[in-house]
């Protein structure tokens, strides 16, 4: 069975593409899917760090593209999961070293091995972005709710619709329900109002998430973190399940209880 | 791999002197903005944003609302030069296009052509055009640039007066000694507005050398129309080098009514950040215009939806042009040479990116009254409808 290629992109840098890729990969693999994460950010690779697989890398994507090794040799297995592999980017090479055709060829091979191939796109809308988007069946746009991220996300949606005829899904990252509640930050409705695309999930802000990426343990592997619930929900929605949106607005004990138990 | 635009590519573009001049212009504009804000504050700090409450509208009708009298020179500079792309950018784009079967040249070249922020790009355009005016004679790049390609000859027309251009072209053709004989020419006119007569003149000069114009490439709407009138194949590119997607389907449409400026152009769907729609006709948008998108028309602009981007109606200088929207919340509104910017958001407000709509928001119409743009809510009970909007000419 052919798997699905999902590209995670944003336009603006620093909104959490890599974190989202790592955590979604982990969440999907915990739901029993076979997952391969591909780092398409040549020259600035860090998906391997976030996933904690840096020291296992021997070959990378450029080596595969240029035929120096087989695809199987370049895939790095994550020992914490049943079936989670990483195809790392090259740190010493440039974004131009992989063409769109090469990327598409590699992804055609990857989808025969896995259920989901997640591509971590580089920031920006240059060649690297197009290389990452070209093989995608679905595109996820990660955005925070600040104006610059929204403006860039809007532009990326425009480009996707114009050049690639794709309707992307949206992940709102670093969502701060407290600020939204006090009316100081744009809420989910405001974001959807302007971007007008399907919402796939909301990840609340959590400073421990930053620590977990720093340690190289995706939060989705960490049972103590409640953010992993958000990623799990997104993963379920990607798989086609109809999971209601967690209501981060509800204050008080019952709201907390609801969040902990996922409703 | 020549198609890829790296950040370095675009980074080298502003010359030191250019960067300095740009900075000056920004400072200049900021000055203007603060002055305008100050004048607003002096008037009691009341809102000048187009989205307005009924009582404020009444104020506007009585003429007590502080509108923004514009600096006409600067505002006038905007419409014509939005299209401008500096010649060196046009050149680098040309080099990029040499790679065949390139799926995303438009996009990569767009990076070189457009700066992300709308204001900065407009600013740099102004700055560049001013530089042009300052040193017309001593342009470093040749006025006419002829290059051979496998499929024909590309003639790029650079900066200079039309006489300089024709002289330079004649000289180049003369010196080539018939080398380009019988070749098919792609004529790149850049953003220069060229009349029908001038186009015919060039075609004749080329015909004298047994060359024929295969296609005209331009970023100027005026040249586009002129080329259609002369009967040449023409490709209109938007200022960022990408083929103007929205303009494409309407090419035949505008060909039918090439002399009729009163036609209209309907766009259905979202206009997102970075999207630019420029037409000579009246524009009707059925959908939303997001912040960062631009809609420019020689006639009226009517939006059946939310207007939050930049709109320029009557870009040809027609002050009678109107802007109407179900939800009028533009970041900037221009009608002919009059300009109005959105007020700064109030403290504690989530920002102008998302102006909260009041529950009973009505459609609004913006127009120019005595050098100011005022907005009026559409009102069912207004006797006789919009009497005041009747145009003198019609």
TrEMBL record, chain A:
Pfam families: CbiA
Record Gene3D superfamilies: P-loop containing nucleotide triphosphate hydrolases
Annotated CDD domains: MinD (cd02036)
GO biological process: division septum assembly; negative regulation of cell division
GO molecular function, one term: ATP binding
Annotated CobQ/CobB/MinD/ParA nucleotide binding domain residues: 6-218
GO cellular component term of the entry, any: cytosol
UniProt keyword list: ATP-binding, Cell cycle, Cell division, Nucleotide-binding, Septation
Taxonomy, superkingdom: Bacteria
Binding site for ATP: 12-19
Function: ATPase required for the correct placement of the division site. Cell division inhibitors MinC and MinD act in concert to form an inhibitor capable of blocking formation of the polar Z ring septums. Rapidly oscillates between the poles of the cell to destabilize FtsZ filaments that have formed before they mature into polar Z rings.
Homology family: Belongs to the ParA family. MinD subfamily.
Protein name (Swiss-Prot/TrEMBL): Septum site-determining protein MinD
Protein species of origin: Caldilinea aerophila
UniProtKB/TrEMBL annotation, chain B:
GO biological processes: cell morphogenesis; division septum assembly; regulation of cell division; regulation of cell septum assembly
Biased composition annotated in UniProt, kind: Basic and acidic residues: 92-102
The protein, known as: Probable septum site-determining protein MinC
Start-end of Polar residues biased regions: 106-123
Signal peptide segment: none
UniProt subunit comment: Interacts with MinD and FtsZ.
The keyword Cell division is assigned to this record: yes
Function, as annotated: Cell division inhibitor that blocks the formation of polar Z ring septums. Rapidly oscillates between the poles of the cell to destabilize FtsZ filaments that have formed before they mature into polar Z rings. Prevents FtsZ polymerization.
Sequence ranges assigned to domain Septum formation inhibitor MinC N-terminal in this UniProt record: 144-212
Record's keyword annotation contains Cell cycle: yes
Keywords from the UniProt entry: Cell cycle, Cell division, Septation
Region listing for Disordered, in residue ranges: 36-123
Pfam families listed in its UniProt record: MinC_C (PF03775), MinC_N (PF05209)
Family stated for the protein in its record: Belongs to the MinC family.
Septum formation inhibitor MinC C-terminal domain boundaries: 267-368
Gene3D superfamilies: 2.160.20.70, 3.30.70.260
